[in-house]
Amino acid sequence: MASFSIWCNRQFEPAQASLFEMACAPHRVRWAESMSASNLVAATSDDALVNECELAYGQPAPEDVAKSRKLQLICLSSAGYTRYDTPAFRNLCREKSITVCNASGVYDEPCAQHALAMMLANTRQLPGAIQSQITNRDWPYLPLRNKSDLITSAKTVLLVGYGAIARRLAELLVPFGATVRAFRRAVRGDENVKTYPIADLDRFLGDADHVVDLLPASDETKAFFDRPRFGRFNRGSHFYNLGRGDTVDQNALTEALSTGALGSAYLDVTSPEPLPADHPLWRAPNCFITPHTAGGTHDESVRQIAHFAENLRRFISREPFRDRII
Questions:
Q1: Catalytic residues
Q2: Which of the residue ranges 47-51, 168-172, 312-316 would you say has the lowest mean pLDDT?
């Protein structure tokens, strides 16, 4: 079996770095000069080292990929791939016969469970109970009981953006019986729920109880949820964002919450990140924010390594890759 060099800029803890090297053996791991513990940080150029490797794991700089002579497979350490989702980069990879995979298989389950947890916390009024506990402990028995709701067949959930996370969330919602509709750029026909072109979304917003934003960042999706679109929501409905912060006009979201047009917003992503302490969203009524933790698990690094190791095995055995995007 031929031996390959594998470039990596994912900063692991020492024990996990050793595990990564063991998973790659007998192939050689070439650690980048500039490492990153965050999937959200763009890589700095490391073209000389990338040029010596057949595989890359982490977040290689697109300009380094353009200069590479050996690179055959890129496995991103993230589910999102905005900086690589350009016609120029796609064409470059096709011309160089470079396959690119993301890590959707690592993050679909935790993100889907996080979204469901947000929805259940919302319907069962958990934030109100927690707020009472940490402030005046006034035992808001009747107000919280009267506001509590259920996810049932009488409720409609819209999944805006349909990838691995949306697919898994749709599966998790099945036992609740809610009507689930998905929206994506192009309907393929293999979706596990009724799916529509995203251009049709506006005519469904007025009937939705829960709207989940799972859109990636792009020129097409920037401020996709803007003032006119929030104006089409069913008054008192609930908005969740586990996609990207740039997909939302946050001033319009704050306004919709302040006027009661939206019942609540649950956000795992914002723009910028971290969200400044004085940003209006922190004080907006019924706005609840988690700090981009939806994809996290205590064993995230181990799951990343296992995902890469499986694609390395498939690379060697010439089998179809997991989560191939290019």
A1: 244, 292
A2: 47-51
